[in-house]
């Protein structure tokens, strides 16, 4: 049976002290980047296995982050939060943390049932991915874990959040439509569903106000109910010449509804979206959209979380 490689073995091979090897493997700022890189590379080549369990016991950390999200965001063809979670998980892994991903059913959210990982203190912090009910958020916060809201905010809680600039991005894409000659513009999205949709609507409305374009309430169309279940899009009798949709899936569904009703897109009605998701590519015609930098959102959330813990 092969002998387990130790820090002493690595130190002897490189002609440095065991303390130096230990500091390098812990990413200590006391060690230069070049030496740290050399030590880590040598450790990997020698097959060194880091004693993570011992580290967790010494530092009283699990090196695991609980990610909580509502099942309402994971319907058919809903990939946005799955992709965002992947970027968050990858960023945390680079910082030495694993993740436990908990998709909360509607009944558990209503019953305020939290994952066992929180109850059993198996995580060091919590990321709430996507807006959930106020009562459920309050229940999670009652366990006093370092917490970050991802892709939403709520002023009722003093919790840091990471979001994209929904307001300005929708303001910009609405102005683009206006610059192309559109003055009859509608908005598709339930403005009571999430803070993100509300901010996108407000950005849309600001663009109308600045260009002295009246807001036609008949052109504000719901795409989902308050529980985020998508519903049939009901087109108004008198159509605008363009629709700003709160997300690409809604834009896709709007285009399909228009085509099935005999309209040509974009000849009769133009449609723009938000997120730069798969739906923007699958749609015929393809959707002009706002690209959300999911990788950067994941990276910033991971960095913020680790800073809170350490």
From TrEMBL:
Domain HTH lacI-type stretches: 5-59
Domain of life: Bacteria
InterPro entries: HTH_LacI, LacI/GalR-like_sensor, Lambda_DNA-bd_dom_sf, Peripla_BP_I
SUPFAM superfamilies: lambda repressor-like DNA-binding domains (SSF47413), Periplasmic binding protein-like I (SSF53822)
Keyword rRNA processing: no
UniProt cross-references to Pfam families, sorted A to Z: LacI, Peripla_BP_3
Organism: Caldicellulosiruptor acetigenus (strain ATCC 700853 / DSM 12137 / I77R1B)
GO molecular function: DNA-binding transcription factor activity; transcription cis-regulatory region binding
Keywords: DNA-binding, Transcription, Transcription regulation
PANTHER family: HTH-TYPE TRANSCRIPTIONAL REGULATOR GALS, LACI-RELATED TRANSCRIPTIONAL REPRESSOR
PROSITE patterns the record matches: HTH_LACI_2
Name of protein: Transcriptional regulator, LacI family
